[in-house]
Amino acid sequence: MRYLPHTKEDIDSMLEKIGKPSIDSLFDSIPDQLKTNEPLDLPDALTEWELDEHMLGVEQSIIASGQCTYFIGAGSYDHYIPHAVKYLISRSEFMTAYTPYQPEVSQGTLQGIYEFQTMIAELTGMDVATASHYDCGTALAEALLIAVRKKKKKKVAVSSLIHPAHKQIINTYLAPGGYELLEIPYNEKGLTDFSKVPDDDIAAIAVQSPNFFGNIEPMELAKKACDDKKVFFVASFTEAMSLGLLKSPGSYGADLVAGEGQSLGLAKSFGGPGLGLLAGTNKQMRNLPGRLVGKTTDTNGDRGYVLTLATREQHIRREKASSNICSNNGLNALTAAMYLASAGKTGMREIAQQNHDKAVYLKGKLSEAGFTFPFDETPFFNEFIAKAPAGFAETRKRLIRDRCIYAGLDIGTYFPDLKDHYLFCATEKVKKEDMDNLALEVKSL
Amino acid sequence: MRYLPHTKEDIDSMLEKIGKPSIDSLFDSIPDQLKTNEPLDLPDALTEWELDEHMLGVEQSIIASGQCTYFIGAGSYDHYIPHAVKYLISRSEFMTAYTPYQPEVSQGTLQGIYEFQTMIAELTGMDVATASHYDCGTALAEALLIAVRKKKKKKVAVSSLIHPAHKQIINTYLAPGGYELLEIPYNEKGLTDFSKVPDDDIAAIAVQSPNFFGNIEPMELAKKACDDKKVFFVASFTEAMSLGLLKSPGSYGADLVAGEGQSLGLAKSFGGPGLGLLAGTNKQMRNLPGRLVGKTTDTNGDRGYVLTLATREQHIRREKASSNICSNNGLNALTAAMYLASAGKTGMREIAQQNHDKAVYLKGKLSEAGFTFPFDETPFFNEFIAKAPAGFAETRKRLIRDRCIYAGLDIGTYFPDLKDHYLFCATEKVKKEDMDNLALEVKSL
Amino acid sequence: MNHPGTSGLIFREPELWEKSRAGRCAVSIPESDVERAPLNTEYTRDSLELPELYEVDMVRHYTRLSQWNFGIDSGMYPLGSCTMKYNPKTNEAQASRDALASVHPLAGEEYTQGALKLMYDLERHLSAITGYDAVTLQPAAGAHGELAGMLIIHAYHEKNNDQRSKVIVPDTAHGTNPASVTLCGYESVNVDSGKGGILTPEAVEAVMDEDTAGIMVTNPNTLGLFERNIKEIADIVHAKGGLVYGDGANMNAIMGIVKPADIGIDVLHLNLHKTFSTPHGGGGPGSGPVGVTSALEPFLPVPVVEKNNDLYTLNLDRPDSIGRLHTFYGHFGILVRAYSYILSMGAEGLKNASEYAVLNANYLKESLKKTMNLPFDLPCMHECVFNDKNQQPFHVSTMDIAKRLLDYGFHPPTVYFPLVVEGSFMLEPTETESKETLDQFVQAVEAICREAEENPEILHSAPNITKVTRLDEVSAARKPCLKG
Amino acid sequence: MNHPGTSGLIFREPELWEKSRAGRCAVSIPESDVERAPLNTEYTRDSLELPELYEVDMVRHYTRLSQWNFGIDSGMYPLGSCTMKYNPKTNEAQASRDALASVHPLAGEEYTQGALKLMYDLERHLSAITGYDAVTLQPAAGAHGELAGMLIIHAYHEKNNDQRSKVIVPDTAHGTNPASVTLCGYESVNVDSGKGGILTPEAVEAVMDEDTAGIMVTNPNTLGLFERNIKEIADIVHAKGGLVYGDGANMNAIMGIVKPADIGIDVLHLNLHKTFSTPHGGGGPGSGPVGVTSALEPFLPVPVVEKNNDLYTLNLDRPDSIGRLHTFYGHFGILVRAYSYILSMGAEGLKNASEYAVLNANYLKESLKKTMNLPFDLPCMHECVFNDKNQQPFHVSTMDIAKRLLDYGFHPPTVYFPLVVEGSFMLEPTETESKETLDQFVQAVEAICREAEENPEILHSAPNITKVTRLDEVSAARKPCLKG
Ligand SMILES: Cc1ncc(COP(=O)(O)O)c(C=O)c1O
Ligand SMILES: Cc1ncc(COP(=O)(O)O)c(C=O)c1O
Question: B100, D283 in Cβ contact below 8 A?
Answer without folding.
Answer: yes
